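Re: the multi-chain job from yesterday

Posting the exact lines I submitted so nobody has to dig through the queue logs.
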Amino acid sequence: MATTGVGPRRRVLLGALLAVGLGVLILLSALLGAVSIPIVLGLRILLHELSGGFLFPSACAGSGLTASQCSTRVLIVWQIYFPEVLLALLVGAALGLSGGALQGVFRNPLADPFLLGLSSGGTLGAATVYIYHVGLANADLYLPLFAFLGSAATGLLILAVARGRYGSVETLLLTGVALANLLSAVLSLVLLYNQQGSLQVTDWLLGGLGLADWNVDGIVLGSVLVFGTLLCVFGRELNLLQLGNDVAQSAGVDAARTRRRVLLLSSLLTAVAVAFTGIIGFVGLVSPHIVRRLFGTDYRRVLPGAAAVGALFLLGARDVSYLAFPGSVLPLGIFTAFAGVPFFLFLLYRQRRASTMGGL
Amino acid sequence: MAPGRAVHVAGLEVRFGERRALHGVDLDVPAGQFVGLAGPNGSGKTTLLRTLLGFVEPSAGVVELFGDPVAALPIRARARRVAWVPQSEVLRDDVPLLDYVLYGRYSLHGALDRDTAVDREVAGRALSEVGLLDRATDGIAGISGGERQRAVLARALAQETPLLLLDEPTTHLDIGHQIDLLARVRRLCEERGVTVIAALHDLNLAARFADRVVVLSRGLRVADGTPGAVLSEQLLARVWGVDAELGIDPGSGLPYLVPRRLVTEAPRALGDLTGGPVHVVGGGGAGAPAMRALVDAGFRVTAGALHLLDTDAETADALGVVAAVEGPFAPLGEPVRVRHRLLLAEARAIVIAPFPVGPSNLANLEDVRPFVHAVPTFLIAPRPGFELDFAGGAARQAREELKSMGAREVASAADAVAAVAAALAPAGRPAAPALPAER
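And the result, structure tokens for all chains:
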């Protein structure tokens, strides 16, 4: 049956295609940006830096550039574009994973990091920095920190509810939705009385990769590796949770504990993403659905798959934004929607069943 | 693990807030037994099963699985001892059947393990045991309801537990699939020594497949034993409030129950069992609705004169109605007519059913005649166009004469009951409304 996904051979083929596509996309993407770099020169610089100077010992040889022009190009490609590409991949992976895990744990195809108010919390945190000039001298440090704290605090609040006697799936989901609305209202109120800061906050709301550098990439990479790997271990549990708490429990899954842990890890992943890139919507919602369409509904595959698709998707959105509007930096959240929605709808209506999770 | 005893429950009490769902329940189930758990809705069957699974915490009492308290077993360890088949399982994702059954292997794995060859073998065997091996690669969304419940059973079997709990597993299945599913469970019990506790709504299915039937009512264990010892008319009346007829299936020697109607309290107010009976003159099945309606309304009922093997005679027998009965197809003989007249003489009201009258039972209408003056008498009118007279006009004439003597014609059995109730009601107290007649 078509709806059960694809056969194992096609699955391997699709996986390989995805990996190769990702590699090529990464290299080509690192040549795209606000300043255009010739492809050959860009590739030379990348391969030079990636091989630690072993390949193309002199990256700009034969390009007719002066030493300082050359070092500017190297700086742009290696210190700006490439970290940006990596950040797009890592944040995409974090959001995809988080969305996949949350959809699994809430048994709801609409669940994503933002439905639960995690993003609103982050935005409120960021707005605090912008508007009240908290440690403005170190804005680059405090902005991510406050955004992370706002996002993580929201996650922990939902988690605290999950520990108590109101920890049913529906209550948790509705708590998150209610919190998201409350936080949005608070944000609107704050912006209303601080008009001078609202432009910056709006910019933040639309999301972007502007903070990317090697340090940021290092932090995000570490978080995604640790939290993401831990999250992927819950594949079996999430599979069983789809059958309902009681059945999962009768089969040996501690449903409440699984829910708490998955929620915690997803919140942390989202918080890290929100901290450095602001609000990038749609990736967390769509990536798991795309994976389920292509690879079936086994969460042991859905979670890593959603990370890969999310990464690819966000990188694609970045590239599309630079290709469509060369020379300008536009908010990434706009392009995730432009690139993602048509593709998602195509997948959705290509098969007759309109939902990957059945019933909803 | 103490072999020999799968389940030990003693003094179990479960409370949900104020409400006590189970009180003082004791239950010991030896390994390998198939226990049918019966009881009306809300009697505590599901709560008992959920307590055994550790989903519900008892407020008092002991619950042990194979010698260990359930509460002391970690969830994963519990899942290696007891598996569960719910009434209907939510299946949101369309998973291939084999993968779905493999989910049941969870408790036997570490977090990072992959499915092993052993897992696949066990899952395959579970699928073949429920007869779905050929559908292993089909999506679970594409199979029928009966197959789906078997798939759920296979998922539970893949856990390879010595104890299997089923919560009304046949509720959404047709009769064929009900028997099929329970027969498969029965075979597992016999061949693999799996202990089974199944909550079953259908007592006849419980009697047929279980070694032992445990009946719960309002959180108490009210009966426990072999199906033959437990199932009785009294039990059904007491626990389910149903008036039933008990028979023994000649093929299997197992008891079966045919539920007749609710034993209700309220309608008793209409009739008065301490007073004299209401007599129904019938035959050919025409008297059955009136007899049923009167019994339901709480009247003591007599009937006559009927022929053996006739529907009315069988109905009278089933309802416990005292009747004057002649041999099959014979003209009413003098001894039967005497008995009939004695019953008529005792009656405090008479209902004459629209029964077909031929030469063999014309005497019925003649025998009523002396009593029409004495007690309220009602003639149920035949349905329009329905010919009753097979005695060359004598029957029609007799019915007209009865009317002229004071017998009142009513439209239906229900109307007859209402009229009887009104006629017998003590002065000043209006009769309660009659129940609609059955059928």
